[in-house]
Sequence to fold (827 residues):
Amino acid sequence: MDTISNLVMGFGVALTPFTLLLAVVGCFLGTIFGALPGLGPANGVAILIPVAFTMGLDATQALVLLTSVYYGTMYGGRISSILLNIPGDEPAMMTTLDGFPMARQGRAGDALVISGVASFVGSFLSTVGLVVMAPLLASIAYLFGPAEYFALYLLAFCTLGGVASKNQAKAAVAACLGLGIAMIGLDNSTGLPRFTGGNMHLMDGIDFLVAIVGLFAISEIFIFIESHGRDSAIGVTLGKLTIPWKDLKASTGTMLRGTGIGFVSGVLPGAGASLGSFMAYMAEKSILGSRGRFGQGDPRGVAAPEAGNNAAAGGAMVPMLTLGVPGSGTTAVMLALLLTLNITPGPLLFKERPEVVWGLIASLFIANVVLLIMNVPLVKLFVRVLMIPAWVLLPMVTMISFVGIYSLSGSTFDLLLMVVFGVLGYFLRKLDVPTVPVILGILLGSNMEDSLRRAMVISDGDWTFLFSSPIAIGLWIAAIAGFVAPLFLRGVLKKPPVPVMDVNED
Amino acid sequence: MKSTLFRALLASAALGLGATSAFATECIAPADAGGGWDFTCRQIGKILYDLKLVDQPVQVTNMAGAGGGLAFSHVVAERGKDADLIVAASSATTTRLAQNAYGGATADQVRFVGAIGGDPGVIVVAKDSPYQSLNDLVEAIKADPGSVAFAGGSAAGGFDHLKPLMVLKAAGFTDVAKVKYIGMDGGAEAITQTIGGFTQAMTGDMSEIVGFIKAGDVRPLAVLTAERVPGFEDIPTAKEQGFDVEVVNWRGLYVPHDISDDAFNTWADKLQKVADSAEWKAVMESNGLAPFTKVGADFQNWVNDVVAQTTDLSKEIGVIQ
Fold:
């Protein structure tokens, strides 16, 4: 088998003591970057690019370091989602929905272990998928045109109402708010600025990270100050760290399904990890229906999004390596690094630079094992960072939020914008409007709009073009089903069992 | 041991991000690390130092935002007299200036000191496309402007959009606002749309799609340079097919407006030396850049012409009034 011998060659390249050290350092830094709100995969990787150059690393070594950081952030993002209710980065957003309620019920340790294992399953299987099917999967990107992408984003939006279990209208309002915010900036289809008020800082639109850190971290700080710490998330304690075999077993199916969904959305350029974790969570919620207690601390509610976003991270490598198309913000940064190292990703990369590709793949496997060890048995190490008293942690979170956002663009404008989002988040929380749909609106809104507008340009404004391929029609049917089904099912199924514990106060 | 290394890494990360020394030349890359402008700063900076044209390593500062607009207004407002400052620029810079996308800033607020390489513009179709030559494509658009949609890596009105329009104008087709164009996020994404059959042609920079050309997934109809590109001698130029167009995404520098003429000329000379160096030639070859050297007053005049031309074209397609 070619694949096996290539893989052996890859391990030969990647398994030197120095690269192993790089992998360990990368995984460690990555987990920290991921866990700290404000520092996400994209700026984590971007920060290390100059370091890689300064250290004079060769192509394989630089890739090992950066992919370890990348995978590390995907693992680390969940830690602050679970313990602080503040997602460490945008793909970890869905993990707050069940992770934090679990932590409040004193099951933070279980949530961390389950999500750690789910992360491993997701990224390990998607790396296997990358090895086995990369050249084949590359052609999926050719099947998705503007009409298909539009239907895909629509599918995501149609299931959005289910994010908030209590009040769907409020979720819809929040999503519309996000869609509105997504319109700010340069319009791709006309080249004209919209809603920028002539301010150059708004030309690129609003970075999700600014919105996330504002809506989650900064608003948390306001709430903390207002309530003198009583209602705040900060200060949840970690119970004893044991392995919850029963929950792990119960969520095996969830992890596998989440991996599948995440991998596919990673492979599609432009969809990415956030869509992967979102779809994985929503799919699992509708599959389990009333059997799950999603939103109230169901272990499967942390397993699904974590398997999904880590699988998407592996999936995103497929279009990046085979087509040179970045599937996410982070792979865009890595692509830029590859180009600087004189490696041009594209259809010929596997043939022309096998040592780079297979070295990279081997390093993904190595990073995964290292991360599993760091994030399950050694997770307390990272937790300790977040377990310090609130009066120390809070100023730290504030500081890191500001530094992290400043490192994105080096502009003070983004800092002000972040505070504005913090105030917005504070009021939304007071009004009991969920903030997750706002972020999804921002994240998916501009992609959805661009796809629709491109479709209209190509078809001369003929709307039937949106239903012109089997893939598009299939996605439309799924979208309509996803939107309508809950309305009917609610009547058919009996009322969902009321949870015994009334812990979900937020 | 690990924590020391960790600290060392963090420290060097911090150094890499900020901190400029007082006397070193500073090169501002108006984009994040890893992009084209960052590449320009790092490569030119390295060669300047290696050739001993500057006495300290060049400090690269990344200042992303508004497609280069933030860096531009920073240079105009705060660094107008700084003779130790160079700023990476490319066709995107002049295109955006021509379209007033830098918040009212104009090209004459800085001095364009030189370009020392260019990414050739290309127009490609899928390998199973009926269009065999640039002429086929142009005739099809002339007959029915709606029959061909272009995909490119920039937003509508951006440099990739303007490339086919310049070719069409050279062919005597004036109704350029009717030409269909969809802006994707980068050239590679644009090419997947073309190979997938969603658009009929793709317009972009050569370096973005070298892999697809070599793999035979696409058929390049024309390269928009004066001469055929070394290494790709079988791709005909637009010129030899009868369309008098040259569209190259040049890589170069601008400097602040109020530096002395002596300082400006010194930078022009230094850039010429970089362009002539063997090191730079190797860098160009491995990155798919073609020779394109213009420095000093020559370059400034050429930029003025390009800006005027871009303004006119942008008005015709409605990107500006």
Observations:
- Chain A has 23 helices and two strands.
